[in-house]
Predict the 3D structure of the following.
Amino acid sequence: MSTTALTHDVRVLAGPGHRHDEILTPAALDFVGRLAAEFGERRRELMKERRRLALRLASGSPLGFPLVTSAVRADPTWRVAPPAPGLTDRRVEITGPPDRRMAVNALNSGAEVWMADFEDATAPLWDNVIGGQLNLLDAVERRIDFTTAEGTEYRLGESDRLATVMVRPRGWHLDEEHLELDGRPVPAALVDFGLYFFHCAQRQIDAGYGPYFYLPKLENRYEARLWNDVFVLAQELLGIPRGTIRATVLIETITAAFEMEEILYELREHSAGLNAGRWDYLFSLIKTFGHRTDFLLPDRAKVTMSAPFMRAYTELLVHTCHRRGAHAIGGMAAHVPGKDPDTNEAALAKVRLDKEREAEDGFDGSWVAHSGLVPVCREVFDGVLGERPHQLDRARDDVEVTAADLLSVRRISGPPTAEGVRSNIAVALRYFAAWLRGQGAVALYGLMEDAATAEIARVQIWQWLRHRVIDRETVLRLLDDEVVALGAEYPWAPVDEIRAVFERTALAGELPQFFTPDAYTRHLVKRTEADA
């Protein structure tokens, strides 16, 4: 894209940072501005439609498979694009934020894919957003090696052994307050996608791969269609052949579960499959139906993947993907290996059992949050796949899932335990503390947690209060206790701010859809302004 044809004046509302000028070039900003100018209004309308649908469902409107797209589901002939270079075998995928240390470790981990996560695993401080882009550019250019102040060396291994990079931009619901076009913040999704695509797409193609993405929190086919149109324009603007982009969609909202085939259809020339995002899926379920007693969930630790409604969701995902020639990628194994061998052994046994279920159900690969889990996941999928790169040939025609099956939460519905209530408060507070400090992925109680964990923790508290299975006085007492414990554990933590985030997002009468927009505007944007 020529710098002589700059037409979209994107303003940077943050002070200059180290090497930021390498990412925020006039041409790159103009490219992002072109995307925002073309699709910003459409994105705003889709966000309004999200709210309208939420109100309809809360008022009792049924949720089912759309009648208007029945012809798409009934047509057996269409398929998604064949796997792109580097995405044929995806048996192990590792996830994490695009910080420098994670980038080197993930690329060297032995996993087939690294999902570089600007969304749930990144607190969107401006330095994190632009620093992440710099790290990806450096990784593609193979200049990301570094040595810490303590003398620890981080070096990339051989090129043919590195994981394929897939980037997860932030969701459609978020804005990037530090970039402005025509007086409006630029959609964060277009910032993360646009900057990476502008700087790295051709470089990745030249290296034998391509620009690959994970798309979070889509709620319907229209949001998938918007992404497809973004891809088409982006490729056109940079002279990249149409269909070079590949994207895997996370099915992590209850409404998207009813439109899996339609989402694949909309993205079919750019599709790389679907992923089962389990924690966000439960979060979405509570957001959507938390006002109903038949959707009252017990402690999140008790909601396993063997629950009937979760089995329906994952089996439908595999069947849908394989029917259309798309990869089906399983959920997260979040265990963080520690020093106690007995604890590790028990945790790894759970991870192994979970991955065995996925591989036997037909998934083509799965996620881990720590490089120490790569061998376990690989061993399980090697045992099922052997030398095959995937199991797309397993059509799972035995699967028949109804709308009632996807919504059969009442079969495990129940009140929480006292420990479950305290655990949710403790985890949410500690995650908020890390997030406000700029850390989006944090090890808590032996698990690698991200924003999805905090979301389900705080909405469960809200749901339990709404249905009066716990009383407000008990929650406030536990909150007092955990805030004191947090202050002792993290002396640097702004406990008043952290408590305020919890109270606004878990104890309010109306449930905020996400904790991130409010906390971002109130805290992270102000922090960037203060630093500048």
Q: What stands out?
A: The chain has 19 helices and 15 strands.
